[in-house]
Design a protein that fits this description.
Layout (H helix, E strand, L loop, with lengths): L6 E6 L6 H11 L4 E4 L2 E4 L2 E5 L8 H8 L4 H14 L3 E6 L2 H10 L5 E6 H4 L2 H14 L2 E3 L15 E8 L8 E8 L13 H13 L4 E12 L2 E11 L4 H20 L5 E13 L2 E4 L1
Parallel strand pairs: 1-5, 1-6, 2-5, 11-12
Antiparallel strand pairs: 2-3, 3-4, 7-9, 8-9, 10-11, 12-13
Helix pairs in contact: 7-8
Length: 284
């Protein structure tokens, strides 16, 4: 199926009125499995392509991400659309012009139906959403928290369960969203001590038989997450490249799982080999 066969829907409303919060409910009612929201292509509850515009350092950069003005980002989403071949897609935007621009930039067909935020939310609900956006700097992305941890290192992620009745005798709508505070907001930034990362990675090294000893560990904090450098002594007879590769993969995975922080870089260097001869230990 080509992109020009996709039926395109739009969900439009001013910024901060609760579009992302209600996106999956609208998509569910229209039988839509794919959503484009702030630079992300979301399939059901999974991010399958794109990088969230809410990670951008400035509001201008946020708009560029959301409109897919960068060729690399556009190509990644188009590739995913060709792979998954959706029959329908829902595009979120703050105006008719914005959603039309997104559809055009992604080489999608013209929008066939537009749903407006005031069709699905009361004025009171929209005012509440605006208040939260202004006073707390919070945004919602329509995917579960675990899908976003790797993309929002260092920023608060609050799971939000939504339960909505659709009327007597009808199956209720249940979904999970993620609330984040974007980079350009001064609210919500949190840090984890470098010592925590050091303790985790050194503990993992101790549990790996092929690694004899950790010589030193250096952790540098960055906006994108910790950068870690480690020197180790490897047991003689081990395949050094395979040992280091396996350890790096495991350490990165465990740190991200335990702390929800993205590991920006992880370098592990074998400084020497440990040899055991006739019961005597020797490091070369």
């Amino acid at each position: 199926m080509l992109l020009d066969k996709i039926k395109v829907y739009a969900f439009v409303g001013p910024s901060g009125t609760g579009k992302s919060y209600r996106a999956q409910m609208v998509a569910s009612e229209k039988g839509i499995n794919f959503i484009i929201d702030d630079g992300l292509l979301i399939k059901d509850n999974e991010v399958v392509a794109g990088e969230s515009a809410k990670k951008a350092p400035t509001k201008i950069a946020t708009v560029k991400h959301a409109l897919f003005l960068e060729e690399e980002e556009k190509n990644a989403v188009e590739k995913a659309l060709k792979k998954y071949k959706p029959s329908k897609i829902l595009i979120l935007g703050t105006s008719d012009g914005m959603v039309q621009k997104i559809a055009s930039n992604l080489d999608l067909p013209p929008i066939s139906e537009t749903i407006y935020i005031n069709d699905v939310a009361t004025e009171e609900e929209m005012q509440t959403a605006r208040h939260i956006r202004v006073t707390e700097g919070k945004h919602v992305i329509p995917v579960p928290t675990f899908e976003l941890k790797k993309d929002f290192s260092g920023f608060l992620l609050d799971p939000l369960q939504i339960f909505k009745s659709k009327g007597a005798g009808q199956k209720p709508y249940i979904s999970e969203k993620t609330i984040i505070r974007p980079t350009f907001s001064y609210l919500g930034n949190f840090t984890i001590s470098d010592t925590v990362f050091r303790q985790i990675i050194e503990y993992l090294a101790e549990k790996m038989p092929e690694i004899y000893k950790v010589v030193r560990t250096r952790v540098t904090s960055t906006d994108a997450g910790p950068s870690i450098y480690m020197e180790v002594i490897v047991m003689y007879g081990s395949n050094i490249q395979e040992v280091l590769k396996e350890f790096k993969q495991k350490a990165k995975r465990e740190i991200e799982n335990l702390t929800a922080m993205n590991v920006e870089s992880l370098e592990v260097v074998a400084k020497s080999l440990h040899v055991e001869q006739d019961g005597n230990k020797k490091t070369q």
